[in-house]
Amino acid sequence: MSHEWHGRALGTRTVTYDETRPILYALAVGAGASDLDLVFEERLRVLPTFGLTLAQWAPDVLGSAGAFDVRTAVHGTQRLRVRKPLPRSGSVEMSASVTAVWDKGSAAVFDVAVESEYFEATWSLFAPGCGGFGGERGPSSRRRPEADPDGVLTASTASDQAALYRLLGDRHHLHIDPEAAKAAGMPRPIMHGLCTLAAVTLPLAESLGAHPADLAELEGRFAAPVFPGDALQVSTWRDDAGPDGGAVLFEAAVDGTTVISGGRARFGAAG
After folding, report:
1. 111 is a catalytic site residue
2. Is the pTM value of this prediction over 0.85?
3. Which residue is catalytic, options 3, 103, 111, 170?
4. Is 175 a catalytic residue?
5. DSSP state at residue 189
6. Element (H, E) at 197
7. What total number of domains does the chain contain?
């Protein structure tokens, strides 16, 4: 049985930006002043995950349209496939739709896909109270590999990182206001999941001898909150057996608690 929101178009939007936004983005996800090709307009390469900030309007539109309770729905999984590099400045035209609604019993998972000539991105949104409509459960999450990790990296976050990242568009009070965080059951403001996921790609790229702007595919599930200042231990496994070859599987933890699971990244030619 299909859900009433399955296949629903969410509209189109064109976002225009100058070099300032991708530079601010790079700084907000952990690039340093010495990373000149990420933070200096004369040499600028745009991180592909910057596109996710341009496309954030789409899941917001779905929530505003009443598909689920925005107070209880959470961002479950994020996927990104790069088609070609984003320009340093310019306009990006995007279209969005609900590509799937999975029935998890007491909850539903809404897949919101955004497409542009530069990328395809999918938000999976976990919505309590929306399941039980007789639909398919959908695919299972990728499990942690049974083998020992091939490597362990550290991805450090800064105490002011969420305050900086929110300037890219996600102004939810949970990420800046201690009182809003407390009301949501958190001891203090938390990191944006997309900021954490993007921050992990920087040490991942370095470990593979790749450039972070050469990210071609990315996926990760948000398993637990991360707080500004946390250091993430990132376990990695080569995924040479995958269809693309050369990808890396990863899982990130803070003090033994998994915060990103089912991670997969591939660096190389986009498309």
Report:
1. no
2. yes
3. 170
4. yes
5. -
6. helix 193-207
7. 2
Residue from 103, 175, 230, 239 carrying the catalytic annotation: 175
C-beta separation of 190 from 162 below 8 A: yes
Q: Is residue 48 within 8 Å of 119, Cβ to Cβ?
A: yes
Is residue 226 within 8 Å of residue 157, measured between CB atoms? yes
* C-alpha distances out from residue 194 to 17, 50, 113, 161, Å: 19, 10, 15, 12
pLDDT in tens, 13-65: 999 999 999 999 999 999 999 999 999 999 999 999 999 999 999 999 999 99
Instruction: Look up the CATH number of the domain holding residue 85.
Output: 3.10.129.10
> What DSSP character marks residue 179?
H
Return the ∠ at Cα 144 (arms to 139 and 148), rounded to 5°: 155
Examine the domain organization and report whether 131 and 207 are in the same domain. no
**Distance (Å, rounded) from C-alpha 186 to C-alpha 176?**
12
Least confident residue range of 25-39, 217-231, 236-250, 255-269: 236-250
Phi and psi, residue 181, nearest 5° = -65, -40
Strand partners, 127: 108
Domain span at residue 218 reads 141-271
